[in-house]
Design a protein that fits this description.
The chain is α/β, with parallel strands linked by helices and 209 residues long. It has 4 helices and 9 strands; from the N terminus they run E-E-H-E-E-H-E-E-H-E-E-H-E.
Length: 209
């Protein structure tokens, strides 16, 4: 495990010689999009399973070609950056994140998390304190690739209607959902509670709407 938190690092990696590293923490630095892309382009990270980039300056984490050589990651922390919808879509659409189980995107600037999702193994997703719209929320609930998702946190966004009235549950293992502190209307609540979503769901929060 390597921790390089609370420094002034901008571009952390040009070449990686720590092939046995399994956990890397680069929280509270000044890493920008270019610096983030350099991390994901790095080779010899076959054993890295957890990457923490909390509180940096990242808007788009990958380069324009969506290069990602960190193919064994199971946990990815991007809370408190400047990630926008484009940057979020880079993560969700990358085929090399197929082992990812836990993803934190809290406190960013995301409106629509993805246009395409390839995170088929994702079990925990937290996108609190963003700008998620009704359309963005609906994209999550309607995505068939999120069949393994168990916990979903979407507090403090701009969601009015989380699902359409004709929606059917695609996340068959969903156990907990938190939609508190949004703008959910009566119609939005009714649509949500009519879904077959409730078949396995045990905990749902709609407080402060």
């Amino acid at each position: 495990e390597l921790i390089l938190a609370c420094n002034k690092i901008e571009v952390p990696i040009s070449e990686n010689l720590l092939e046995s590293l399994s956990h890397l923490t680069l929280a509270s630095n000044v890493i920008n999009s270019m610096g983030s892309a350099s991390i994901f382009r790095a080779k010899n990270f076959e054993n890295l399973v957890s990457l923490d980039l909390y509180k940096n300056l990242i808007e788009t984490p990958l380069d324009n070609e969506n290069t990602n050589n960190l193919t064994h990651l199971t946990e990815l922390e991007f809370t408190s950056n400047k990630i926008n919808s484009k940057g979020s879509n880079q993560i969700f659409s990358s085929p090399n994140f197929n082992l990812l189980e836990r993803l934190y995107l809290n406190l960013n600037q995301i409106e629509i998390p993805f246009a395409e999702n390839k995170l088929t193994n994702l079990q925990f997703l937290s996108i609190k304190n963003n700008k998620i719209t009704s359309e963005g929320c609906q994209a999550i609930f309607q995505n068939e690739s999120l069949k393994n998702l168990r916990k979903l946190y979407l507090q403090n966004n701009n969601i009015e209607i989380p699902v359409k009235s004709s929606s059917h549950q695609t996340m068959q293992n969903l156990y907990k959902v938190n939609l508190g502190w949004n703008k959910i209307s009566s119609e939005g609540c009714q649509n949500l509670l009519r879904m077959d979503l409730l078949e396995k769901l045990e905990i749902i929060s709609l407080s402060r709407n």
